[in-house]
């Protein structure tokens, strides 16, 4: 598995207003969610990881090599970033041509790019729309096209910026499966999310950003159980955990399924 290590990272768009303030983080083999209120620096952080912005100080090591010494092409083969807004990414006039851009850019042959792009479209349930103009699809579908274009590149690290925004239950289920399959394939997955329920249901590790700092990080259950610290970052606990607490169910449950299981068990009588 590819390793991404972030050391004492600092960044400001404008020197007077620092945005990333000394972040240290190592990606490991756990699926990792980044949460944090609007403007806490999440998107800026992942743009730094992808080499789209350069740190003011600190280092990002990709498998031990400083990202600052790598070319855009070298980074593109190793790190895929699915943008929050697909329209920042889409510019071709057919879905297939659009998805093929990334694979062709990183050196896949025409045949390889066509095959990997068709397979990626099938993974996001868009088989059959290859010849459609992406702008004849709705926003949720365009987000899937943008996701497919990154999947087709088969990078060892995949970063998502708000993949579930604007997706219905079916779309979220597709994204959940994609993320779980990527992990099963040995890839590192990092995902910015506002949806605490999705983060709790899908991710093993949660990183909390607050005003450019890393406020909390750890296993999802442990992080989401820290209600007061989350409130400090203007974040809420997952719905299932709040319901479980309201019902007096112990154990900091993360998902509706865990609550259902707890309710189905016979009550524990006090000894
Ligand atoms: N291109 C830019 N130029 C100047 N300032 C920027 C730029 N992009 C973001 N910022 C500022 O940097 C700060 C962090 O923004 P960023 O988008 O990284 O936060 P975020 O946590 O991803 O927010 P959101 O959840 O709303 O996407 C904000 O104050 C934002 O206004």
Outline the structure in words.
The chain is α/β, with parallel strands linked by helices. The protein has a single domain, classed as P-loop containing nucleotide triphosphate hydrolases (Rossmann fold, 3-Layer(aba) Sandwich), CATH 3.40.50. The chain is built from 11 helices and 10 strands. The strands form 2 sheets. It has a 6-stranded mixed sheet with strand order 6-7-8-3-9-10, sandwiched between helices. Strands 2-1-4-5 form a 4-stranded antiparallel sheet, with helices on one face. The longest helix is centred in the middle third of the chain and has 16 residues. It binds adenosine-5'-triphosphate. Adenosine-5'-triphosphate (ATP) binds next to helix 1.
In short:
Helices cover 38% and strands 22% of the residues.
- Helix content bin: 25-40%
**Overall structural domain count:** 1
Give the CA-based shape: globular
The H/E string reads EEEHEEHEHHHEHEHEEHHHH
CATH architecture: 3-Layer(aba) Sandwich
Largest sheet: 6 strands, mixed
Poorly predicted regions: none
With helices defined by DSSP (H or I, 4 residues minimum), what is the helix count? Answer: 11
CATH topology assignment = Rossmann fold
The SS-based structural class is alpha/beta
What is the element layout, followed by pairings?
Elements: E1 4-14, E2 17-26, E3 32-35, H1 42-49, E4 57-62, E5 65-66, H2 72-78, E6 79-82, H3 95-105, H4 110-123, H5 139-151, E7 157-161, H6 169-184, E8 188-192, H7 196-202, E9 205-210, E10 213-219, H8 220-224, H9 227-232, H10 239-246, H11 256-264
Parallel strand pairs: 3-8, 3-9, 6-7, 7-8
Antiparallel strand pairs: 1-2, 1-4, 4-5, 9-10
Helix pairs in contact: 3-4, 3-5, 4-5
The structure holds adenosine-5'-triphosphate (ATP).
InterPro entries: AAA+_ATPase, ABC_transporter-like_ATP-bd, ABC_transpr_CbiO/EcfA_su, ECF_ABC_transporter_ATP-bd, P-loop_NTPase
Organism: Trichococcus ilyis
Pfam family, one: ABC_tran
């Amino acid at each position: 598995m590819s390793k991404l290590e972030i050391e004492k990272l600092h960044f400001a768009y404008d020197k007077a207003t620092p945005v990333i303030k000394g972040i240290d983080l190592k990606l490991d083999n756990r699926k990792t969610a980044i949460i944090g209120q609007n403007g806490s620096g999440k998107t800026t952080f992942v743009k730094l990881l992808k080499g789209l912005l350069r740190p003011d100080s600190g280092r990002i090591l990709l498998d031990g090599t400083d990202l600052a010494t790598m070319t855009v092409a070298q980074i593109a083969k190793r790190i895929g970033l699915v943008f929050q807004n697909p329209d920042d990414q889409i510019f071709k006039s057919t879905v297939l041509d659009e998805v093929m851009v990334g694979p062709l850019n990183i050196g896949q042959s025409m045949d390889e790019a066509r095959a990997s792009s068709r397979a990626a479209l099938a993974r996001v349930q868009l088989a059959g729309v290859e010849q459609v103009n992406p702008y004849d699809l709705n926003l949720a579908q365009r987000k899937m096209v943008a996701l497919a274009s990154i999947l087709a590149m088969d990078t060892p690290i995949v970063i998502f910026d708000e993949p579930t925004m604007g997706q219905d239950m079916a779309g979220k289920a597709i994204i959940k499966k994609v993320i779980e399959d990527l992990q099963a394939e040995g890839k590192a997955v990092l995902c910015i999310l506002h949806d605490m329920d999705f983060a709790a249901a899908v991710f093993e590790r949660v990183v909390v950003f607050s005003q450019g700092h890393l406020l909390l990080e750890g296993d999802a259950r442990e992080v989401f159980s820290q209600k007061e610290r989350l409130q400090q970052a203007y974040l809420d606990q997952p719905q299932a955990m709040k319901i479980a607490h309201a019902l007096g169910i112990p154990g900091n449950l993360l998902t509706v399924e865990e609550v259902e299981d707890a309710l189905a068990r016979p009550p524990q009588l006090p000894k």
